[in-house]
Amino acid sequence: VRLVESGGGSVRPGDSLRLSCEASKYPYTCMGWFRQRSGDRREKVAIIEEDGGPSYDATVEGRFTISHDSADAPLNLQMRDLRPEDTAVYYCAVTFSSDCTYTSHFTYWGKGTQVTVSS
After folding, report:
1. Strand positions, DSSP E, the chain
2. pLDDT tens digits for range 29-47
3. Using one digit for the tens of pLDDT, what is the confidence trace for 73-105?
4. Nearest-CA neighbor of 1 among 92, 76, 77?
5. Is the separation of the CB atoms in 116 and 57 below 8 Å?
6. CA-to-CA dists, residue 63 to 25, 29, 60, 93, 105, angstroms
7. According to the model, what pLDDT value does residue 80 have?
């Protein structure tokens, strides 16, 4: 399984960014975006389930949108109204597990892309 993220960068508060993840084409049960701030644990940002809708962490609800339009499409994360606290390395991850509740359920990870929000 190969995952490659792109789209990170340095922006100002209030700006937007779109992250993309190219994934090997398997029937994953869940795909998601996670982030890790300096000194913190990796946390779930947004996930999308094969047979369900998207779900978001409360800190990004209404500002971020996860999408995966087809099996051949990349996994995207549209981020709007970015804030300094969104600064982190963002990772794409997938799993074949029937349970996608926790970060530990995600088996395969990309190398990450840095997002920096600063004035």
Report:
1. 3-6, 9-11, 17-23, 30-36, 43-49, 54-56, 64-67, 75-79, 88-95, 108-109, 113-117
2. 899 999 999 999 999 999 9
3. 899 999 999 999 999 999 999 999 888 888 999
4. 92
5. no
6. 28, 24, 5, 20, 25
7. 98
